[in-house]
Design brief:
Length: 259
């Protein structure tokens, strides 16, 4: 079991900072940072959180730092659909509804789908039922041959993009479950993917439905200043048409993916 000083040093190394860098950012002395890391000084809970803030430590891991120092956890982890987070749930639901007729969904830190809007439903047609049993994992849904994979024209490119995003996520905050998902579905296999340049505003995901191709790019939205672990770990993934033909498909009356 690591001490709080050892954990803080690990996070500092992960962020590529020197003790002086961290000290300047947190407005403390480099000597104090050194004493905390070596266990020669017992930091207060407020000092731990100040250093954690400058290191960009996720709320879940800030609780771990506090526990290692003998303090009670500071951040709760409440269900998104519970009474305590009702305002946040309602806000997310409004964002998803407002994005229609384009698809949008919410995922947690393990890429499990928490909520979707109605525009997602047609994409789930013909997906194997076991892939739709909760928790539905977005990465597995996208890459499994019984999920979206047969419909994604640029599957190798999409896999490469997911690999980059999740590798970056793991570098920022290691997670055993996400590591297992990465090793299962995204471990590099020697493929050499070249991303388009020039004409695209973003690398699209290209879906094939019959004779039609839909080109979509995505944006992500997170809560700016969450004080709850659940809110700290959810992301809204919103998809937009990348060309006029795809936009017309979604906005035309009675359209439905898979028809």
């Amino acid at each position: 079991m690591y001490t709080v000083g050892e954990l803080l040093r690990q996070w500092r190394h992960r962020r590529g900072l020197s003790q002086l860098d961290l000290a300047i950012a947190a407005d403390v002395s480099a000597r104090h940072v050194s004493l905390v890391e070596t266990g020669k000084s017992n930091p207060s809970a407020d000092m731990i959180l100040r250093l954690a803030e400058q290191l960009g430590v996720p709320l879940r891991e800030r609780n771990r730092l506090l526990l290692a120092a003998g303090f009670a956890p500071r951040y709760a982890r409440r269900p998104l659909d519970g009474d305590a987070l009702k305002a946040a749930w309602d806000a997310i639901a409004r964002v998803l509804r407002a994005h229609e007729p384009y698809p949008a969904l919410v995922v947690d830190r393990g890429w499990n789908i928490v909520m979707t809007n109605r525009a997602i439903d047609p994409f789930l047609a013909n997906v194997a039922p076991d892939l739709l049993r909760p928790p539905v994992n977005m990465v597995r849904l996208g890459l499994d041959p019984r999920g979206f994979a047969p419909r994604i024209v640029n599957l190798a490119e999409v896999r490469s993009l997911l690999r980059t995003r999740i590798a970056r996520q793991l570098a920022a905050a290691p997670d055993p479950g996400l590591t297992a998902l990465y090793e299962e579905l995204l471990a590099p296999g020697g493929e050499n993917v070249r991303h388009p340049a020039g004409s695209e505003i973003a690398i699209p995901m290209i879906f094939r439905f019959g004779e039609r191709e839909l080109r979509l790019f995505s944006t992500t939205t997170t809560f700016g200043t969450p004080l709850d672990i659940t809110l700290d770990e959810v992301t809204i993934e919103s998809y937009y048409p990348a060309d006029a033909e795809s936009a017309a498909y979604f906005t035309s009356a009675g359209s439905g993916a898979g028809t």
